[in-house]
């Protein structure tokens, strides 16, 4: 995929999703009326984020800004970047309501350095469910490195590429005779199966989802396109961009119902496989540093 047609498709999709996500059954925006409240996503990340007080930070693919505002409440001076003008309009309204000062900038990720300036940030944060919308993981990593000051950190938690390779399939009755069986939600039961590419492919994968992961209102522009990137491709891209990997952790949970009918919501706001969750790496956290000696 060499052209930018994917941007137009995904921009329309995320414009439409943003309107759904600020609806009454979308994101829990009212919770932020409590000045101490932070999003479940950032609460999950908090033990690994460290002290953010006084850091200049940017949230790439910030959407409507719930995680961006949460990071600001932890002490960072925040900028948020997103390709969707509708999402950013909602983000500015939301941040003002929350009483948090955030610089929101419209740009796709690959234009971030031009939009924000090079070597400007102590922290580049990328939240859950983001890099699948990007065709070139190497270019993403180079962009991150260019945004960071020497000594600055990348923090990303995202859906695991194994999870992104899965689809729910109906299995035969013989499966139910085994000692360990899946959550039975259809005749014969359902089970996750590797159905989609694990490695980055030249062409995008097309989805048409009439509803979003938050909110029940139909999405006006339901088509989106994405790519999967393997763990090896992600790690190699980060290293090739000149960053040093400090932490890499895989988690058995993800903050959305990625496999409907086969996952259970926990008290921490995370979904895990109902049957033997230890089978699935559902998300990962990667922390990397631009060396202080890098000029």
Automatic annotation (TrEMBL):
Lineage of producing organism:
Bacteria, Bacillati, Actinomycetota, Actinomycetes, Propionibacteriales
- Cross-referenced InterPro entries: Methyltransf_12, SAM-dependent_MTases_sf
**Which molecular function terms from Gene Ontology are attached?**
methyltransferase activity
Q: Which organism is it from?
A: Tessaracoccus lacteus
Name of the molecule in the record? Class I SAM-dependent methyltransferase
Enzyme class per UniProt: transferase
Among its keywords, does the record have Transferase? yes
Cite the Pfam families for this sequence. Methyltransf_12
Q: Which GO terms describe its biological process?
A: methylation
| Domain called Methyltransferase type: residue spans | 59-154
Give the enzyme's EC designation. Answer: 2.1.-.-
């Amino acid at each position: 995929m060499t052209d930018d047609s994917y941007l137009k498709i995904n921009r329309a999709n995320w414009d439409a999703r943003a309107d759904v996500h600020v609806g009454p059954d979308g994101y829990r925006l009212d919770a932020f009326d409590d000045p101490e409240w932070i999003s479940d996503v950032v609460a999950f990340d908090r033990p690994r984020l460290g002290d953010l007080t006084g850091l200049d930070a940017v949230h790439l693919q910030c959407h409507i800004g719930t995680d961006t505002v949460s990071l600001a409440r932890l002490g960072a001076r925040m900028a948020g970047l997103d390709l969707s003008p509708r999402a950013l309009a909602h983000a500015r309204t939301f941040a003002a309501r929350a009483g948090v000062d955030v610089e929101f900038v419209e740009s796709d990720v690959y234009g971030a350095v031009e939009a924000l300036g090079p070597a400007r940030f102590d922290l580049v944060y990328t939240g859950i469910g983001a890099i699948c919308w990007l065709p070139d993981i190497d270019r993403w990593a180079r962009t991150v490195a260019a945004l960071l000051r020497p000594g600055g950190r990348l923090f990303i938690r995202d859906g695991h590429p194994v999870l992104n390779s899965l689809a729910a399939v109906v299995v035969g009755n013989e499966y139910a005779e085994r000692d360990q069986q899946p959550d039975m939600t259809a005749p014969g039961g359902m089970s996750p199966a590797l159905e989609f590419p694990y490695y980055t492919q030249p062409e995008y994968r097309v989805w048409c989802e009439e509803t979003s992961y938050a909110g029940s209102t139909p999405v006006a522009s339901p088509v989106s396109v994405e790519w999967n990137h393997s763990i090896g491709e992600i790690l190699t891209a980060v290293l090739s961009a000149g960053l040093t990997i400090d932490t890499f952790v895989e988690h058995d949970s993800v903050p959305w119902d990625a496999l409907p009918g086969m996952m259970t919501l926990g008290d921490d706001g995370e979904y895990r496989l109902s049957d033997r969750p230890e089978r699935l790496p559902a998300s990962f956290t990667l922390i990397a540093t631009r060396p202080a000696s890098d000029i």
